Amino acid sequence: MTRGSLIALLAALSLLAVPAAAQADFGIVPGSARVTALNGDGTIDTQASSHPYSFTAHFDLKTEASGHTEGGEMRDVLIDLPPGFIGNPQAMPRCPRQEFEGGNPQCAPSTQVGVLQATLPGFGQVTGPVYNLLPPPGIASQFGFSNLSLNSLQYASVRSEEGYGLGFLAPALPVEVTSVTETIWGVPADSDHDAQRGATAINGGPPVASDAPKLPFLTIPASCEGTFKTTVKVDSKQNPGDFTGEAVESLDTAGNPAPMTGCDGVPFAPRISSQPTTRLAENPSGLDFELKLANQGLLGPGAIAETEPKKTVVTLPEGFTVNPSLAEGIGVCSEAQYRDEKIDSPAGAGCPEGSKLGSVIAQSPLL
């Protein structure tokens, strides 16, 4: 072996010995992720259970000197909002998928909920409307962004095991993206947004008005126990499913943690009624129980939405008893069977039919 070939071999071996941590890592630039809820005057909205003027999420990906992302291209984006941060897709019209599909969506201006900006290597920055789409069955809400370079669908889900917080997934991005800024409007039909309504207006054209009712779309959490935290996570096309990201606190204009305030002004006025299913004394009877919340502020721009109950405890009326001999003959649903029970499960697929004691009907203006 010549001296030159020996040097080349040693150089190759040294590259193989480089620790994994020193290699290019895919992920979000530390400290670049931020979320901001604003009032109309540009100040930070910290009023508990209020309807913000806008909500913006931003993050940058690590990039090489060439401008391309380190460690591969981004595949999916997952944003988990804190429990209590809600959106009301019923507050505005929805765009059918056939009108959204394609590089130039034909969605009505009234279906736009915000604006998305993304940086694409080789293309620069692309900007366009985010639309409230008519979701497929089983999906509570769906957003869509589309232009000639980037098409992205965003699916909403509820994290039932994590305080019922909302999660938004933008899967299978078709092109390389290095930076994302998405702003969702608190009241999408507000005339303040006309200058950014529709692709033509965003690119300097005349303002476009919305003919939709001016109803709030967003409501921030009602808890004042601390800052609200949003988690931003991404994975790569090279390692799908291997998410990396960071939790972002709500901050004030100086960059300090900004907890919610004004909880003493959040209304809570539940109305409760109950009555037996029979008026005959000493007779078998069921019990009809009803809990109602006014929810007036949920649909009022500038109003404070009523907070939801944290826990409900029901004490039966005096003299209202349970027949222990009958209770022994009722079937039992195990915890595992209960976890398998779904809203669309066929009878007996989760809990046995013999374990059923009654029924519950829940109504929500959000669904």
How is this structure best described in words?
- With 367 residues, the chain is mainly beta.
- It contains 5 helices and 15 strands.
- It has helices at residues 3-16, 97-100, 199-202, 324-328, 335-340; strands at 34-38, 54-60, 74-80, 86-87, 112-120, 124-133, 141-146, 151-159, 165-170, 179-185, 218-219, 229-236, 244-249, 271-276, 287-292.
- The protein is globular, with a radius of gyration of 26 Å.
- Mean pLDDT is 85; it is low at 6-23.
What portion of the residues fall into strands of 2 or more residues? Answer: 25-35%
Shape: globular
Span between N and C termini?
A: 75 Å
Structural class: mainly beta
Mean pLDDT across residues? 85
The whole-angstrom Rg is: 26 Å
Strand order of the largest sheet: 1-2-10-5-6-7-8-9-3-12-13
Give the SSE map.
Elements: H1 3-16, E1 34-38, E2 54-60, E3 74-80, E4 86-87, H2 97-100, E5 112-120, E6 124-133, E7 141-146, E8 151-159, E9 165-170, E10 179-185, H3 199-202, E11 218-219, E12 229-236, E13 244-249, E14 271-276, E15 287-292, H4 324-328, H5 335-340
Antiparallel strand pairs: 1-2, 2-10, 3-9, 3-12, 4-11, 5-6, 5-10, 6-7, 7-8, 8-9, 12-13, 14-15
Short structural summary:
With about 375 residues, the protein is mainly beta. About 10% of the residues lie in helices and about 25% in strands.
